[in-house]
Fold Two pore domain potassium channel family protein.
Amino acid sequence: MIAALILAIALFLASVGVHLSILGAGHRMLDAPGNFSAKLGVALLVLASHLLVATLFAGGFWLGAELGLGGFDKTPAMSAMDYFYFSLINVTTLGLGDIYPTEHLRVIAGVEALTGFALISCSAQLFWTMMKEGENA
């Protein structure tokens, strides 16, 4: 359990750091004289950031499974795409339930869902800023 918590915290910190760095770049893009293509660029940055966070957690799930912290209820064995798919569904808090973690990997899944909720909120703030700027132009 302690190993799963340490891994989950490390993934959380890495995800928040990466996401906030990328959102900072998005804010700097908005500070420059704005145009529609800059806003599309910011939207793509946000998408890339969320996909990167899902990739980080997918790697964390793989590592956790390799360390014997748990597994996934899916047959046959999990592929790289399965780890990414589960992570992407989990980070968005959608949680379809077709793949689910067992044992201590459930801790990492819970932290990922909380992380995703927080980071999606940060992204929403950036989109709100973009829309508000468009009203004032």
Summary: The chain has a mean pLDDT of 90. The domain at 1-134 is CATH 1.10.287.70 (Helix Hairpins). The chain has one domain: 1-134.
